[in-house]
């Protein structure tokens, strides 16, 4: 990563468990943070990033399932909110804050949501497939929930133990 990229917090850091605050004003600071988040997400590489993952307790997310290949695919969403959902699907997910782990997570198959864009316009969409999954994953971050919190307690205990050992050895 170059020097403009933000540090991505890892599982175990307190900020990741805090419910993020709503963005009340979309100003240059928010626009600059969003730009840095997009750059960080692409460099990681990842397909989604939430502001709490970079140490900002704000309801701001970036989603780009094309990993920067298709500019029109990028979503920068302020105060995103799922308004309804349908069905369920179970798939493996990774997380930039839980690197090295791919976990099976149950999510809604289709979501309806609303958010504000950086220019202040309201966006309402319904999503299915990977984008729906990423959006739910990132909104979980805004509520202080990680993929580790969505797996069985037995698997969570094993992962916590592994991460604790990695932390002690300086690998985390």
Task: Describe the model.
The structure is a single chain. The protein is an alpha+beta fold and 172 residues long. It has helices at 28-43, 129-142, 153-168, and strands spanning 48-50, 60-63, 75-93, 103-116, 122-128. The protein has a five-stranded antiparallel β-sheet. Strand 4 (103-116) and strand 5 form a beta hairpin. The longest helix is centred in the first third of the chain and has 16 residues, at 28-43. The protein starts with 27 loop residues before the first helix and ends with a helix.
> What proportion strand?
25-35%
Radius of gyration from CA coordinates: 16 Å
Residues in helix, %: 25-40%
Order of helices and strands: HEEEEEHH
Strand order of the largest sheet: 1-2-3-4-5
Task: Supply the helix-strand structural class.
Answer: alpha+beta
Head-to-tail CA distance between termini: 17 Å
> What would the principal axes of the Cα set say about the shape?
globular
Low-confidence stretches: none
**How many DSSP H or I helices?**
3
Q: How many DSSP-defined strands?
A: 5
Tell me, rounded to a whole number, the average pLDDT.
95
Summarize the biggest pleated sheet: 5 strands, antiparallel
């Amino acid at each position: 990563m170059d020097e403009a990229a933000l540090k991505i917090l890892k599982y175990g850091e307190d900020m990741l468990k805090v419910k993020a605050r709503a963005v009340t004003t979309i100003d240059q600071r928010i626009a600059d943070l969003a730009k840095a988040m997009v750059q960080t997400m692409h460099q990681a590489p990842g397909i989604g990033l939430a502001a709490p993952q970079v140490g900002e307790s704000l309801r701001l997310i970036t989603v780009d399932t094309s990993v920067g290949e298709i500019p029109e695919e990028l979503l920068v969403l302020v105060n995103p909110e799922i308004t309804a959902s349908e069905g369920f699907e179970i798939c493996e997910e990774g997380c930039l804050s839980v690197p090295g782990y791919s976990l099976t997570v149950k999510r809604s198959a289709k979501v309806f949501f609303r958010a504000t864009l950086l220019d202040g316009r309201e966006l309402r969409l319904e999503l299915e497939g990977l984008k729906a999954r990423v959006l739910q994953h990132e909104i979980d971050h805004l509520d202080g929930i990680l993929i580790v919190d969505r797996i069985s307690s037995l698997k969570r205990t094993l992962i916590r133990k592994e991460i604790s050992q990695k932390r002690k050895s300086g690998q985390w």
